[in-house]
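Researcher: Please predict.
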Amino acid sequence: NVYSTKELLETDVGKIVLQSFRDKIELTPEQKALYFALDRQIRYESIIKQKYDVVIWDRYVYSSFVYREMEECDVNWVKKINSIFKKPELNIYVDVDIDTAMKRAIENKRVLPYTKEQLIKCKEIYFRYVKDGQLIKYKDYDWLVEKILRVIKKWKLIL
């Protein structure tokens, strides 16, 4: 019984934040921290009620820590407002080249609320969490494709 979720797409609160990014409405780092935490809380409560065995959460509390720290928000405060969420059993950071990620976002018509310089700073902060052992780093998505192909071959779904 598996559930997959990602930020800003499933709740009304998340859609407000996404629209603010699209409309280039300036939110303070503190406002973003609270909006993201509220979006996360709404999804979190729904997930708990459903009693899933496995939850795959694209972006979770670490993204709040990283992006708000990059914006010079008090990261200890951000950690405190996110402390209500269950600690995941596994945290993965997928290391994607910034230029490649930005190009993919543009091609897929996604919002780019941060500059390349800001994303470089975020990457440095993510690497600190990797170095501290809080996140496991994988390079790009090749590891995922390989893993999926192994499972498909095991199930004999392809020749």
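Model: Strands lie at 2-6, 54-58, 92-95, 136-139.
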